[in-house]
Design a protein that fits this description.
Structural class: alpha/beta
Number of strands: 9
Number of helices: 10
Strand content: 15-25%
Radius of gyration: 19 Å
Largest sheet: 7 strands, parallel
């Protein structure tokens, strides 16, 4: 069946991150994941201790070494990525923990040096929606005027009961407030959702997708819940308190979700990455390209595409 989806360079029936970047900047762009040494209000006791139950290292599993300074991390991670993509531009990505949870003076010390590096065309900052005080928002607005800024907001689920189960320590109302403050300043936002959280049904996951889709975010990441050694969730999983999704279940949830998002919302991610040394389940997630291929095949089988079921 012919693929008529207009935001595609290949067989994808959704608006890919790669398509967006090549269309915007004219060539390959990759993120350089960094660890700024930040903490989190859900780790340091301000809101809670231990972080979210699925969190092992501040959700920065593939970021740079926090023992190195930012520019050393940047050069090290960039060199690894260049082996795959030798001719590319860069977006430094402050990934680990909560990267707006510090005074603006500290944020400037972390962010400004990498923005001056050759080939850097933007900046991605991962944070929580409840860590956006006005002085930080003013700095983000300044950055947005100087570079291609993306602020990534972890939501995971719109359901507050799920948030309590995973020790999230913020509500959906908190998310809406943070999201609105960023959009009021015309800052690009990427929203994160996790599929397969304990207690959530297929219908609940789709409700989260549909609700977020109506906000028309610039970007979205759909993550697969994966269980990592050393987390509180690993103990719950080993006790049989919940189960992880099968590959067919996950593929159906993703395809159903893609149909709900407006075609202009860029899909930055469609699965989750767990390290081979720390992943407990689901083990099928290690075969990332198999997962992505199954999603492509299901969208083809349906003769469907992103946005086909979007409603305002």
């Amino acid at each position: 069946m012919k693929n008529d989806f207009k935001f595609s360079l290949d067989n994808k029936r959704y608006h890919t991150w790669d398509y967006h970047l090549k269309s915007t900047f004219g060539k390959k762009v990759f993120k350089v994941a960094l660890n700024g040494g930040f903490t989190c209000p859900n780790i340091d006791g301000t809101k809670g201790f231990g972080g979210c139950t699925y969190c092992l290292s501040g959700s920065g599993d593939f970021a740079g070494n926090p023992n190195d300074d930012i520019l050393t991390q940047f050069e090290t991670v960039k060199a690894k990525m260049h082996k795959k993509w030798p001719d590319a531009l860069y977006i430094p990505y402050f990934q680990a923990n909560t990267n707006t949870y510090a005074p603006v003076s500290v944020l400037r010390e972390k962010f400004e040096p990498v923005l001056k590096q050759n080939g850097v065309i933007g900046l991605a900052i991962s944070t929580r929606p409840d860590c956006l005080p006005n002085e930080v928002l003013d700095y983000l607005s300044e950055l947005n005027g100087r570079t291609y800024l993306i602020v990534e907001l972890g939501l995971q689920s719109i359901f507050d009961e799920t948030g309590k189960k995973i020790n999230r320590k913020h509500t959906y109302a908190d998310f809406l407030e943070g999201y609105s403050k960023l959009k009021e300043r015309n800052i690009r936002v990427c929203v994160h959702l996790i599929e397969g959280l304990p207690g959530e049904t297929h219908e609940m996951m789709l409700k989260s997708a549909e609700t977020v889709a109506k906000l028309r975010p610039d970007f979205v990441k759909l993550h697969l819940l994966h269980i990592l050694q050393g987390t509180k969730m690993a103990l719950q999983y080993e006790k049989g308190e919940f189960d992880t999704l099968t590959l067919p279940e996950y593929v159906n949830i993703i395809c159903d979700s893609l149909e709900l998002f407006h075609e202009n919302t860029v899909i930055q991610r469609l699965t989750g990455d767990g390290g081979r040394d720390t992943l407990i389940a689901p083990l099928w997630s290690l075969k990332k390209f198999v997962v992505l291929n199954e999603i492509d095949k299901e969208m083809l089988r349906r003769n469907s595409y992103q946005g086909i079921k979007f409603t305002e």
